[in-house]
Amino acid sequence: MREELGLSVASAPLFEGIVPVLEDLKKSGVILGLLSTNSEDNMYRFLDAHGLDCFSFVESGGIFGKAKVIKNIISSRAIDPKSCFLIGDETRDIASSKKAGVLSVAVTWGYNTQRVLEAKKPTYIVNTPKELLRTITPL
């Protein structure tokens, strides 16, 4: 069953406009990491299927334990939490960012609606990948 799930994950489409944004972020010096409740194998399948090579690290974290994983990532990589963004499309991503002490960027093109995300008070809320680029690119 895991193998079948991995195949469906690999064939999942990308959100329109996200690839150039990821490439621009990487070029600008932003360190990109991928944290998901999905398995690392499935994440790598997805990245490989779409030719994405912009993430410095890929980590799998529990559905209710993302904050702990974020804290471990920050600690092990000596990242300043004040310069770290958790970008997500779910309310639990916003909650995890608050618990981990990092900035949250809620994107409206995923799981939860803008209204639901706004109610959880993320640091930022963006409606398009280009807005994401403007929000987190260093000045």
Describe this structure in words.
The protein is α/β, with parallel strands linked by helices and 139 residues long. The protein has one domain (2-136): Rossmann fold (3-Layer(aba) Sandwich). The protein is 46% helix and 14% strand. It has 7 helices and 5 strands, in the order H-H-E-H-E-H-E-H-E-H-E-H. The chain has helices at residues 2-10, 18-27, 40-49, 66-76, 91-100, 114-119, 129-136, and strands at 33-36, 57-60, 85-88, 103-107, 124-126. It has a 3-stranded parallel β-sheet with strand order 3-4-5, sandwiched between helices. Strands 1-2 form a two-stranded parallel sheet. Helix 1 (2-10) packs parallel to helix 3 (40-49). The protein is globular, with a radius of gyration of 15 Å. The termini are far apart. 19% of the residues are buried.
CATH class: Alpha Beta
Structural class: alpha/beta
β-strand amount:
5-15%
Order of helices and strands: HHEHEHEHEHEH
Number of domains: 1
- Count of helical stretches: 7
Largest pleated sheet: 3 strands, parallel
Please give the oligomerization state of what you see: single chain
CATH topology (fold) name? Rossmann fold
Strand order of the largest sheet: 3-4-5
Distance linking N and C termini: 45 Å
Shape annotation: globular
Radius of gyration: 15 Å
| Known CATH architecture | 3-Layer(aba) Sandwich
- Helical percent range? 40-55%
Average predicted local confidence, pLDDT: 86
Spans with pLDDT under 50 lasting ≥5 residues?
A: 1-6
CATH homology-level superfamily? HAD superfamily/HAD-like
Number of strands: 5
